[in-house]
Design goal:
By secondary structure, the chain is of the alpha+beta class. Helix content is 37%, strand content 12%.
């Protein structure tokens, strides 16, 4: 209920400055590709990944794929202090 009842945050996500991965399963029925693209467009420098053979929980359904994406996202940033 917390997700359903909370205030929308769309107008605040453009403030995110950390490396950001938006991962969506290609079979996700909860978050449309349009919604994922909209989030991606609001976060400067974010990466959008569409995970094949996954629904709304790609971290559970395709953990090796997600782990590889996360590793690629953070590897260039390891050791940085900004």
């Amino acid at each position: 209920m917390g997700v359903i009842e909370r205030e929308p945050i769309y107008d605040q996500i453009n403030k995110i400055t950390a490396p950001t991965l938006i991962a969506r399963g290609d079979e996700d029925v909860a978050i449309s590709l349009e919604q994922a693209n909209r989030i991606h467009s609001r976060i400067a420098g974010s990466k959008l990944a569409i995970i094949p053979h996954a629904g709304h929980t790609p971290t559970v359904e395709e953990p090796a794929v997600v782990n590889g994406l996360l590793e690629n996202l953070i590897s260039p940033n390891l050791g940085r202090d900004d």
